[in-house]
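Figure S7 source data.
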Amino acid sequence: MTGKDNRKTFHIQTFGCQMNVRDSETLAGMLEELGFAESKNKREADVAVINTCSVRENADQKFFGTLGQLKKIKEERPDFVVAVCGCMMQQQHIVDTLKEKYPWVDLIFGTHNIHEFPRLLTNVISERKKIVDIWDNSEDIIEGLPSKREFPFKAYVNIMYGCNNFCTYCIVPYTRGRERSRRPEEIINEIRNLAASGVKEVMLLGQNVNSYGVGCDFNTDFADLIGQINEIEGIERIRFTTSHPKDLSDKLIEAFRTCEKLCPSIHLPVQSGSTAVLRRMNRKYTKEEYLDLVGKLKAAVPDIAITTDIIVGFPGETDEDFNDTLDLVERVRFDSAFTFLYSIRKGTPAEKYKDQVPEAVKHERFNRLVELQNKISAEINKACEGKVFPVLVEGPSKTNPKNYSGRTETGKLVHFRGSPDLIGQIVPVRITEGKTFALFGERVEE
Ligand code: 5AD
Ligand code: SF4
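Tokens for the predicted 5'-deoxyadenosine complex:
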């Protein structure tokens, strides 16, 4: 089926983290260059792409469920093209299952050869054949790929790819390969162009942004890079994710003070509050070191918002270990936390750990942690009441179409009465109500 303007259409479904969202923007850009138009509905599209994730809970089930739905469309329309890519494709057992049980998938490619997508897709269509093309690793970074970005006023910018840390629970080093940093001049150029096109906020992406530039033939580290971006006219907000606590330098903490565009917020995954568990996770810091780091951040940037990731029920986690996590959460007072039930990832060291925690125990701990964190988030957000924050307006609220929503510099979601002309603007909003997951407020006339 074709779009109104006779162009063939595509639909991309993205699972997982910001990296995957960014990759999908590149895939969409390449599809538009090939002459395709985006379709909101996968059932009507000519090409359906599923960009998969290996990190999230039940990722396999969700993915195979989605593929199951596509079988029927393929039966009705044999020209319908099904392409799958992303982290799951870097796992051999997934590709084997696809080949064996999902013959209606036309194209399988991985995280290292996204730039090959146009050629692969063209071959699939013109030769009506199936292609599986996965690269084990990649050293080069391909620059200059097209993008179809979601917002005109804020943008994700990759600064590095891959991860060298090998946390024992994590699949990412196997699916995304070793650390590679983009050259600073490429990043600066991209952000200058974004600023020229109206982008005000950049979110710098990497699995471990604090080790940006390590082992490279240039001398720019992460704090230097932020300093350079801070100089770019038109850019008003700089954010980044994700930081590994072991690599967070004093120089970066200083950058929060010297770079006025660097937003006072940091996502600093702790994973556990128990030093013994952290050691088995291969995180390379102790509970005390993490608390010291938070102390330094809060001393340097009093209004900083700190968010985190926590895994509950890592193999061998005792009641005492878990109490250490609760204690750390109370002491840090995170603005918010993503909480995960530990689950085995095939091929990671922790898969082989003998003392897996029973599901019931994991769930009970998980619920207690979420309850504590929600209480803290609600208290912190309540304390925002009466204060005025600059908010970058994103669009109509998803929950109440009468409201508009945007984000504070600390990354908090704010809903308020607005109008379409405010989208993409930074406006002052007075907070009238602070809830667990969002703030509500009213616009202050300037
Ligand atoms: N089980 C549970 N949570 C996990 N994460 C990564 N791997 C696992 C796993 N095997 C979580 C970590 C990471 C976040 C993106 O996902 O907390 O920071
Ligand atoms: Fe995974 Fe650890 Fe690398 Fe983060 S730092 S991507 S948790 S291995």
